[in-house]
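tool_call: predict_structure(chain=1)
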Amino acid sequence: MKALIVYESMYGNTHLVADAIADGLRPVAEVAVVPVEVATRARVAEADLLVVGGPTHVHGLSRTSTRKTAVEAAEKPGSELDVDPDAEGAGLRDWFETLVDLTGPAAAFDTRADASPVLTGRASKGIARRLRHAGTTVVVPPESFLVTKANELVPDELDHARAWGARLAVELTAASTSVPATTSADH
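tool_result:
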């Protein structure tokens, strides 16, 4: 089985989470983790599982303007933020515009501030909605991974991500090994 994890990351946290999810999936799948800008239609089509994640900006998926603001914040004098090497490429919102007629299982995740989702929003909900609209079947509820005010993952979030990846592995293994029961009417 091949899994493709596509991520958008501004300061590296979503990238770290994507790598940890891959660790959880590796016992059952060959996993590739790629930034959104290199997640071509052909690459997506080759995957048996598509996992997509991004940061939560202004209650949802990033926009060109919020991505630009994030890069500018990192460039300010005295900023301790480091921009992910792939941050200045395309974002998930634009990428989803190119995806249609997909099939197969998918999952969505995000990174967001460590506060109530009512206050922060959750990009993963929008990602899951777009995955379903593109034709995939979202196999687990969207998941959030939390970031502190200092822009660091909350302690144990990478363990949380690995466990979520393992949960995906279990779901996929169960789905691929389930055999429909036969009844006497089937004979």
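agent: The chain has a mean pLDDT of 90. Proceeding to next step.
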